[in-house]
Design brief:
Elements (H helix, E strand, L loop, with lengths): L1 E4 L10 E4 L10 E9 L12 E8 L5 E6 L14 E4 H5 L6 E8 L7 E9 H5 L7 E3 L3 H6 L8 E9 L17 H13 L7 E6 L2 E3 L4 E3 L2 E2 L8 E3 H15 L1 E2 L6 H12 L6 E9 L6 H11 L4 E7 L6 H6 L7 E2 L2 E2 L5 E5 L14 H8 L3 H11 L22 E7 L5 E2 L4
Parallel strand pairs: 17-18, 17-22, 18-21
Antiparallel strand pairs: 1-2, 3-6, 3-10, 4-5, 4-7, 7-8, 9-10, 11-14, 11-15, 11-23, 12-13, 12-16, 19-20
Length: about 425
């Protein structure tokens, strides 16, 4: 907070201006809500009341800022307001437990609106939906102090609430008519890489969400919520687990890449004899909150048997992703440069039609997704003096793809799946 004195008139104090600031969260959830009221106080002498609601976001310094006003319902003590849509960041700056204050007013033409009462809630409470917990007493402190038998000035009830990703603007939106951007990328790219897996069992994880029942933030949770066996059967199984997770968890920032890169790196560090090679596939909308930590993770991972493929979805700029792709300038952290380039970035929008519903060329997508993996794999093997395995003996059965080395394939992003498979 900064206090500055105003000046301009010689010899007179012109007052003080106060600046306060708060860092915006990365939360991009959108909520749609509807409210109604029952038995509000009558404020107009010749009529009932013309009620409307005013929503306030609480600030870090204890003050409140108006973030939404409903329309006015004329001459009605039991109003039903229209539903409205508001960014969760505007309502509570992404903090689900932060206080949201709501005032109820009776509208007056001259602007001197009469205060009916108030109540407080939080986005976490609201997100639970219609229930007895989302019926609020409207209290007027002045009336409560004067009248011994005062109970309340009416009640306000939450009629409905729907949260991102049920909004069409979300890249995670689950439309009944088509796949969302993440599902399309997962299916298209997953069907390419699953040919390198023998059992088609994929341990699939998500990160960047608050998990039920306590709302704990996680950056690595099994999409099927089975920590003992996170395997999903094929890419279709991963998709099913992904959609089920969207219905269960609350998407939540920040978007941190480093934790999942480091987790894959720990697995890769346990198998450095050339028998396995790890590929981390990250699906992202371009937002990254821990760039410095991610660069350090990439530099550390460059000395291990692993590569990172980043697939960007949506219309955003992907400057940060391009920066991680070390084709021109090797990634560095704290003065250390990556031993080799292990990151390949592919913008998914370059491979789909204008409607965003169909991949234009699976062959071209496959070529670009896997373009750098062979050289990256060979560069690690050669640098460690690891020789290829001897050729397999002839088999009477039809031969499918026989990779030179085993690949462990991983997938991930801030609440996007990441998975590992064994060849």
């Amino acid at each position: 907070m900064i206090n500055l004195s105003l000046s301009g008139i010689p010899g007179k104090k012109c007052g003080t201006i106060i600046f306060t600031a708060e860092e915006l969260s990365n939360c991009r959830d959108i909520a749609t809500m509807q409210f109604c009221a029952n038995k509000l106080d009558k404020k107009d002498f010749f009529g009932k009341s013309d009620p409307f609601l005013v929503f306030y976001r609480s600030n870090e310094d204890g003050t409140f800022t108006i973030c939404h006003k409903t329309e006015v319902i004329k001459n009605n003590l039991n109003p039903v307001w229209q539903s409205f849509t508001i960014p969760v960041r505007a309502l509570c700056n992404g903090d689900y437990d932060r206080t949201v204050k709501v005032d109820v007013y009776d509208w007056d033409r001259d602007g001197s609106h009469d205060f009916i009462g108030e109540f407080t809630t939080s986005y976490r409470e609201l997100s639970r939906g219609q229930s007895q917990f989302n019926v609020y007493e409207v209290l007027n402190p002045k009336k409560k102090g004067k009248k011994k038998k005062y109970i309340n000035s009416g009640t306000v009830r939450l009629v409905s609430v729907s949260c991102n990703p049920s909004q069409p603007t979300s890249l995670h939106y689950m439309s009944p008519y088509q796949m969302n951007a993440y599902a399309m990328a997962l299916k298209a790219v997953g069907e390419i890489i699953q040919d390198y897996d023998s059992d088609k069992l994929f341990p699939a994880y998500g990160f960047g969400a608050k998990l039920p029942p306590d709302g704990k933030i996680s950056h690595a949770f099994p999409l099927n919520f089975n920590s003992e066996n996170p395997n999903c059967v094929g890419i279709e199984g991963v998709l099913e687990a992904y959609f089920q997770s969207l219905r269960t968890v609350q998407l939540y920032g920040p978007t941190n890449f480093a934790p999942v890169i480091n987790q894959v790196a720990r697995s890769a560090a346990e198998v450095t004899d050339g028998s396995q090679y790890f590929v981390l596939l990250m699906i992202t909308d371009g937002v990254i909150s821990d760039m410095a930590q991610t660069k350090e993770a990439v530099v550390n991972a460059a000395s291990l048997p692993m590569s990172v493929i980043i697939v960007g979805v949506g219309p955003a700029e992907f400057d940060a992703m391009e920066e991680l792709d070390g084709d021109e300038v090797r990634v560095s952290s704290r003065g250390r440069f990556a031993e080799r380039d292990i990151v390949q970035f592919v913008p998914f929008r370059d491979y789909i039609d204008r409607s965003g519903n169909q991949v234009l060329s699976m062959a071209r997508l496959a070529k670009d997704v896997l373009a750098e993996i062979p050289d990256q794999l060979l560069s690690f093997m050669k640098s460690r003096g690891i020789e290829p395995r001897p050729p397999l003996p002839p088999s009477p059965a039809p031969l499918h793809l026989q990779p030179l080395y085993n690949l462990n394939i991983w997938k991930g992003r801030s609440f996007q799946p990441w998975l590992k498979s064994r060849t």
